[in-house]
Amino acid sequence: MSVPPRDPEDPTRPLGPPAGPPPLPPRVREYEREVVPEDPAWREELLDKMRSLQTAVALLGLLAVVALGVAAYALLTQEEESDARRGASNESVNRIDERVDELESDVEDAPSRSSVSGVRDDQKSLEERVDKLEARPRAQPQSDGPSEQDVQDVQTSVDEIGSDIEDLDGRVQELEQQGDAAP
């Protein structure tokens, strides 16, 4: 069988049956089963366990209903019995009032946001100044006493002053000798 030429104007027309031999019928597989006779004891044991489970579920349901009844009774009779809760004592109410007053005064004494931000700004500027000072190279390390160079400079100055004093002393003696010799 041949397929008619395609008409471009009719793209949705159904196609004819496929060409070729007809399909084969599906194959059915057959299995042989061995028939095992049922054991009546097994069936009785299974039925006994199911009855046991049914009894357990019934008892749990009964227990839940009893517990719900006891809880409802306790809730409904609580206001009538003497074990009902009493309100707070005057002493505990006064203590709580005092604590609330203390907390309110603490809140009133707390610094405002502007003062806290001012302190933070001051802290940041001080931190920046400290960072700048730490970044500067140190010219000369500070020590507790004078350095060796300072000691040598002072010793040289003392020696020079001592020689100048000796020169002056020598001149004074010369002048005194000249003054004694001349009359």
List keywords for this structure.
mainly alpha
Mean pLDDT: 80
Query: How many β-strands, per DSSP?
Result: 0
Span between termini:
174 Å
Number of helices: 4
Alpha-carbon Rg, integer: 59 Å
The main sheet comes to:
none
User: In terms of per-residue confidence, which ranges show pLDDT below 50 for 5 or more consecutive residues?
Assistant: none
Along the chain, the helix and strand elements come as: HHHH
Strand content: under 5%
Alpha-beta classification: mainly alpha
Helicity level = 55-70%
Which of globular, elongated, flat, extended, rod-shaped describes the shape? elongated
Compact overview of the structure:
With 183 residues, this protein is an all-alpha fold.
Itemize the secondary structure elements and their pairings.
Blueprint: H1 40-77, H2 90-109, H3 113-135, H4 148-181
How would you describe the overall organization of this protein?
The chain has 183 residues and is mainly alpha-helical. Among the domains are: 41-79; 89-133, no CATH class. The chain is built from 4 helices and no strands. The model has no long low-confidence stretch (mean pLDDT 80).
